[in-house]
Amino acid sequence: MTDATAEPQTTEVQEFEREPVPASHYKGWKSFLGMYAGEHAAGTEFVIGPLFLTAGVSAFDLLVGLFLGNLMAVLSWRYLTAKIATDVRLTLYYQLEKICGRRLVTAYNLANGILFCFLAGAMITVSATAVGIPFDMEMPKLTDTTPNGLTWVLVVLAIGAVISIVAARGYDTVSRFANIASPWMVLVFLACGVVALQGLNVRSFADFWNIFGEGSEPFPGQIKYTFWHVMLWSWFCNAAMHIGMSDLTVFRYARSASSGWTTAAGMYVGHYLAWICACLMYALYIRSGEAQVMLAAGIAPPVAPGPMTYETVGVAGLICVVVAGWTTANPTIYRAGLAFQAIFPKFSTVKVTLIAGAVATIAGLFPAFAMKLLDFVAVYGFILAPIGAIIVFDHFFAQKAGIIRNYAERVQSSFNLSVLLAWFISMAIFYSISVYQGVFLSFLTLPAWLFCGVLYLILSKFLQKNN
Length: 467
Known about the structure:
globular; Hydantoin permease; mainly alpha
């Protein structure tokens, strides 16, 4: 699960930021296949896989839940994101501006930029667990929320500074490094999985199944995941990108909406395969004497990608963790910088990217963002997905509902109140249900998305008549 809003070529995006992509610049499905396969086999996968095990998932929950959840994500990209993208050929931000108005898009950019910084911070944390090994650094525990020592602070600050400087050099530099590193990272993930299977004495599918069996009690401080937790979380961990419509910016270059099927490469190589491989590494680790002592004392063994991969495949694993965190954090910080620049247009790209990098680095000091990544990603998708519902319902249902499509553009408004109310009310209602009724947030992402879209149509019907 990574930032998949990166365009195929930055120069083209700069040329067509406020107009449809011309046919001469359309791209075939191969242009998207490699991008999705690479961008979804990244630093987050080293943390997400083990966290499923800490949640006590069963073999069925993991294998079938992940398969169906990722399938639903692919279908969302294909039939919603890619469909609308090839219909309008516009970036997410310009499409939103046409519906919402420039002032409201500013609020969205602020939320988007801050959440991107926190996600990048989690990836800096991931890289730090590898860099800190030669310094005998104490690794963060699952329950840690604040920095655990001076060495941790210094390592995170150093990594954050390097990543921020590279991100500030522009997307060409960022994407070039990621494209070179991604195929190698996939191979390392596979190697980790194979070695972990050997260490677990897996000789058949039955042996593999028995690693998880019927599930177990969650580790201290974690909640129990069922089939529905796994399925819905894996569907909506990229909710901001598909039903949230962020990837309009990517698929506007596609020759046809069928290019949306290429997201399967990311979901089943980067997510399904990489998550399971990372989960196997952690399964091997928790059989160690050190981990067993912690469990006996009621302490959850740390989910530290650096030590896990080092114990599994040696130095290659450490390098992979650093690179994986790097290739996720770099484009994420770059994207955060672009979101902030839309709010502060007088600032240079370099300046706002460095500011975003500083925020991400500060976030990286706090292990909670990485150790609670399942929860954070659920919140991230929940907040941004309803904005996608506005685009979807405006595109498909505006005419049937008798409202003006692309309302802000048509009436020259900088603030569409219907959008703000629909977004805020849907989030407030369903987030309150999650908090006060103890409902897993990913269970509520789709209801909140649908509610926001319907409420937008109703409010537009009323408010547009009164303008």
